[in-house]
Design goal:
The chain has twelve helices and 14 strands. With 344 residues, the chain is an alpha/beta fold. The strands form three sheets. The chain has a six-stranded parallel beta sheet with strand order 3-2-7-8-9-14, sandwiched between helices. Strands 1-13-12-10-11 form a five-stranded mixed beta sheet. The protein has a three-stranded mixed beta sheet with strand order 4-6-5. Helix 6 runs parallel beside helix 7.
């Protein structure tokens, strides 16, 4: 989570004053308004997102002394999340099988990832490859960090072959995704957010929404999320938080989310460190009372991908435990993983 703005550096505070009304319609008008009055504005204080973010390094951890030998298959292994998961899984003692699904252009090629060669298969032979992998590794669990438009097709394949999976890919038809798992009684962890600490925040939001419905009735909401330019869809995490605010009485449509994908804006307005432009997740939710006298801000800033990779490994270990116990429940999310309390 981002640290308090009380700890912001003078440079950050100066930037906040200069760009406080980033979403205002009139830049000239806002420049003439004293800062003290700007702070009462409904305009979204984007630059407060430059408070110290969570730093998540992709430096490989030391190998675990306890090797579980649990086999996992990481699809889209050549992607940045795929590589991060492979790093984290091997450090945790899991056995990452040397095959993966990829795009047609990668089909039949081998890629060196962390000193290990992976053979990538294209869309045409996925079912045979997956069935063969399951036959060779009966306890196999698949990790999916592919692309949004592959979510449903991949899930249908995993369920058809009978391979448990952890779905970290966002997008797709989420209702159909859940229905596919429920109808086939396949084991799966599905979550648009794998960062354990961020999930804990989401859980707290859900509890607040459930216990205090309408608590923010009449408040206006502004939401900004900044991700690397390659992320084409809106954040699933942001959508989940907005759903909670809707239950709390705030009127807000998902298409009102401000998506920041331009690197220059990310650097100058949002405050993303330059070295993390290619991998970050900055979110801010700004609430204002009807009379402009009260504001609330919630934010979580993450640099890098290891927070998601570590959470993914915890989800894999959790799912393996549920399968071994023959748990009657088959479909889980990251809140279920958190509640188990056995994270590393």
């Amino acid at each position: 989570m981002a640290t308090s703005l009380l700890k912001s550096t003078p440079n950050v505070i100066h930037r906040r004053q200069n760009h406080f009304a980033f979403f205002s319609n009139s830049s000239s008008a806002r420049n003439s308004v004293p800062v003290s009055q700007q702070r009462r504005s409904r305009s979204f204080p984007v630059v407060s997102m430059s408070a110290t973010p969570v730093q998540t390094s992709l430096v490989k951890s030391a190998p675990s002394s306890t090797n579980t030998g649990l086999p996992i298959m990481v699809n889209a292994c050549t992607g940045k999340m795929g590589k991060a998961v492979i790093n984290a899984a091997e450090a945790a003692g899991l056995h990452v099988v040397p095959v993966s699904f990829g795009c047609e252009e990668e089909s039949g090629r081998t890629f060196d990832i962390g000193g290990k060669e992976f053979l990538v298969h294209g869309p045409s032979d996925r079912e045979n490859v997956l069935a063969s992998a399951l036959e060779k590794y009966p306890n196999l669990i698949v990790v999916d960090y592919t692309i949004p438009n592959a979510v449903n097709g991949n899930a249908e394949l995993y369920c058809k072959v009978g391979v448990p999976f952890v779905m970290g890919t966002t997008g797709g038809d989420r209702d159909l995704l859940h229905k596919t798992v429920e109808d086939t009684k396949n084991y799966a962890v599905i979550s648009p957010q794998m960062g354990k600490q961020v999930v804990a925040f989401l859980a707290a939001m859900e509890i607040m929404a459930e216990q205090f419905p309408g608590a923010f009735s009449g408040y206006s909401l502004q939401v900004l999320e900044s991700h690397q330019a390659s992320k084409v869809d809106a954040s699933g995490t942001a959508k989940a938080v907005i759903s909670c605010f809707n239950k709390l009485g705030v009127s807000f449509d998902m298409d009102q989310i401000k998506l920041i994908r331009d690197p220059r804006q990310q650097l100058e307005m949002v405050g993303v460190p330059e070295e993390h432009l290619s991998g970050h997740a900055f979110h801010m939710y700004h609430l204002t009372s009807p009379d402009d006298t009260v504001t609330f801000e919630f934010q979580h800033n993450v640099c890098g991908r290891s927070i998601y990779a570590e959470g993914t490994v915890d989800a894999v270990l959790f799912l393996a435990k549920k399968i071994e116990a023959k748990d009657q429940k088959r479909l889980y999310n990251m809140i279920d993983v958190l509640r188990e309390g056995n994270m590393r």
